[in-house]
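Hey, I'm writing a tutorial for new members on how sequence and structure tokens pair up, and I'd like a real worked example in the thread rather than a made-up one. If someone can provide the structure for the chain below, I'll link this post from the tutorial.
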Amino acid sequence: MTDAPPRSGQEPGQTTDQPTVTPPAAAKSRFALSGTVLGGAAVAMSALALALSAAPYLSGGFGGKVRDYLISNPQVLDEVLAARETMESQSRVQTINAAAAANPALLAADPRDPAFGPANAKVTVIEFFDFRCPGCKAVAHDYRALMAAHPEVRFVFKDWPILDRGDDVTSQYAARAALAAHQQGKYLAVYDALMAERALDRAAIDRILADNGVDMAKANVAISAPEMTRHVTDIHTSAATLGLQGTPTFFINGVASPGIDPREVGALIEAAKKKG
């Protein structure tokens, strides 16, 4: 988000000390159960209990049929929850897209961000992610394959560490370390290794940087630099202003993807290419 604009495949850099940056309380991995889902489950369970208890008192024997049907087909509850979650997800995406449209600078090209593909590409994909996010790790391999399949598309990485709690700053350190590697032209190799590492801690992150040829002395300076703090803070601010609630979140030409499946992102890329 601020630096000498990196060319495709190149890496700029900036860095800062340990995180004083705190993500929005609502931010989380999109693979985690949200309060909305749990709340929806509670509501659905309550509705089911009410239906079952009231059914015997409904006239015409209809209540008994409803009760028998619900007992015989408990999957209806899953369908109710799925429908509710779909509606709420669509509403969230609409809210995010409205914020993005109202604040285009939030998703504008930032020379500090790792970016790969033509600078003048007709389609730009932006990912907000956390290296410890289970969802981010689950889609990382296929997302990188998507990049390889679309060399004409610009892919931008927004390192958004949101999973730290208390004294645990592993996500923050991983983001800074990856951005420090970006300054040395090593971003994608480090990204792949960090996503593949199942149990990230500082030692594992340092090992990954060293294994991928990152100069650790320079990286440590970058990680602790005020510019790095400013960069990560700016990403947090953009995410909060957009109303993002979890990782990963993908934008295709400024429009949020409803889901995280790379196949869905790929379909949105194709649609954006057809629009020209």
